[in-house]
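Let's sit down with a protein and look at its sequence and fold side by side. Which protein we use is up to you, so please pick one and set it down. Label the sequence line and the structure token line clearly, so we can match residues to local backbone shapes. Go ahead whenever you are ready, and we will take it from there:

***
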Amino acid sequence: MRQWDTYQWVFPHGDHPCVVISPPARVANSACQTVNLLACSTQRAARPALAHEIILDQVDGMDWETLVRCDVIWLANKSELKLHRGSVSPERRRAIGRKIIRLFGLWLE
């Protein structure tokens, strides 16, 4: 498991793809049993991404164009992540990072 890998996880709202966003040191540390995730939709994206979303696709391990929400960060047990789907492309990693920084107001002034 690595940062930016995509998996399947059972969220409180159902079984959906997800993106691991925890720092690499946390992901690699066996003493840390949890990782941070972003939730993805299970249905094909039928609209453009909203201000809090990014579209991922097959290059990122999704079955089709899929919306990923960047405004909510989930905490999951590593052992609960199933079906390694792939890894988010470098271009979309940058887009997700920029979006999270903007949405959460993490930029420096």
